Amino acid sequence: MSFAKKIVLWSTILALLGGAGYLALSPRPVMVDTDVLQNGPLMVSIEDDGVTRIRERYVVSAPLPSRLLRITWDVGDEVLSNQTVLARLEPTNPQLLDPREIAQAQARIRAAEQRLESSKAELSQAEAELQFAEREMGRLRKLLTANATSQTEFEQKELQFRQLTEKVRAATFGVDIAEYELELQRAALILTESPDDSGKAMALEIRSPINGRVLRIYEESTTVVTAGQPLMELGDPSDLEVVVDVLSRDAVRISAGDRVIMNQWGGADPLHGVVRLIEPSGFTKVSALGVEEQRVNVIVDFADPGGNPAMLGDNFRVDCQIVTWSTDETLVVPTSALYRDGPQWMLFRVKSGRAVATPVQIGRNNGMEAEIISGAKPGDQVIVYPSDEVSDGVLVRQR
Q: Which SUPFAM superfamilies does the record associate with it (predicted)?
């Protein structure tokens, strides 16, 4: 072999060895998952379980000690106000004619009359407040048309008007129930003073105070009952609200008027509602892990045009998502791309095949996505779920 060929051969061998050494000693890129930042909607919400509840429940009780005849109604049966006879009472013995019983019945009539007057006063006050709120809404509507007031102030007045409307409705029910109780007490006195001792002539019929359905029957068989003993519970299943018990630290972030999205109720599409009330008093509840938690009830009204679905009933479970903040467009980043360096939020951008540690300022965060206020821009490629092998300046390659 000539000298020139030997030089070429050894040069080739040395070049191959040098290339192999370079490949062996050069750093290998870290395999990573990436995502591209872009503008999009972001919603911050509080999620918890809720149960439906009939807004107004009525417990029908015995007005005086007597003998209850068997109740023939079943749970779910429909009843009509002042028409449906719910139960019949008969005297148990001549003690119904006792002067003491007569005096007690007269006292109950006077108490029922006072309750009726009090209920009427509450109704008058609620109607006056509603009329004032209606005038205020009319005035603000004109100011809003002239751009002399804010949309927020108008919506607050509108929410106040809705709350006062419900207050008038509840006060009206209170007057109806007070009148019904007064009629019962007067009927009991008439029954006590009746000269006819036959059980059939002295039978007292208890009629339904509302239009609705039977929710629960406490006493079904014939038995002797005492005054005030509950007989059955009535309500209107079409008039539902939702009660959501949330942690007290979450309740302070909820405001009346916040929209609510209800899922997992049994239907294909979610239901919509609005927060009507955050109860001012909390309670202690033991979690499934045995931890005591302070919780607060949040009352939600259905906001769908058709009201609550007919399939829903009392004490049905729904998953509620209370929206505390939302926007249609902002720069969004997955929270899996964020990490902390002391008090500073950081993320890794991919630039020229290398990871670049970038400080960012974070706004709202819902646990899955976060709002970027500064430090990144739309179109930036970021690393999600960065491992311990990823650091500033390291070579990376997308999986």
A: HlyD-like secretion proteins
pLDDT of residue 344: 93
In-domain check, residue 376: yes
Alpha carbon distance 146, 165 (integer Å): 27
Among residues 295, 327, 359, the one where a domain terminates is 327
Query: Tell me, what's the pLDDT at 199?
Result: 43
321: domain CATH number? 2.40.30.170
CB burial class (10 A; 0-12, 13-18, 19+) of residue 72?
exposed
Residues across the chain: 399
Question: What pTM value is reported for the model?
Answer: 0.60
DSSP 29: P
- Amino acid present at 385: Y
* Token pair recorded at residue 288: 């499934």
Q: DSSP string of 39-74?
A: EEEEEEEEEEEEEEEESSEEEEE-SSSEEEPPP---
User: Is the residue at 193 inside a domain?
Assistant: yes
Cβ atoms within 10 Å of 18's Cβ, excluding its own: 10
Residue 36 lies in domain: 30-40+329-398
342 in any annotated domain:
yes
- Looking at residue 194, its pLDDT comes to 46
Identify the segments of the chain with pLDDT beneath 50: 23, 94-96, 194-199, 201
